[in-house]
Amino acid sequence: MTPNSIRIATVMQLRPGQAREYQRRHDELWPELERALKAHGAEHYSIFLHPETEQLFACLNVRSEEKWQAIADTDICQKWWRYMADIMDTNEDNSPRSVPLQSVFYLA
Question: b/e string for 29-49 if b means 16 or more Cβ within 10 A?
């Protein structure tokens, strides 16, 4: 974790049977999306799958929550959300339905 960074963690839900497709799409992450994620401060971004519940746990570090939140307004993020909407639970704007998690333990 870099100095002054903020850790963010969320839980999202895949639709039944979509784990393999989710993995495939992330294995082929668009270069322009990767650039946007980094430009908006994402560092050490990981997503883990719970194989029985098909829940996704995402964790990343950012330097500014405000800068990170601004990625939602980019064309590439909106395009990615539309691309992923058929395989995961989403909000009306196609953003992933996610629940922010509260940190209870961290070992540096």
Answer: eeeebeebbeebbbeeeeeee
| pLDDT band, very low/low/confident/very high, at 3 (cuts 50, 70, 90) | low
40 is annotated as an active-site residue: no
Classify the C-alpha dihedral 2-34-101-25 as positive or negative: negative
Confidence of residue 1 (pLDDT cuts 50, 70, 90): low
d(CA 80, CA 67) in angstroms, rounded, equals: 18
Q: What is the dihedral of CA 18, 19, 24, 29, to 10 degrees?
A: 100
Check if the beta carbon of residue 90 is closer than 8 Å to that of residue 98. no
Phi first, then psi, for residue 31 (nearest 5°) are -55, -35
Cα–Cα distance between 82 and 61 in angstroms, integer? 24
* Residue of 26, 40, 44, 50 with catalytic role: 26
pTM attached to this predicted model: 0.93
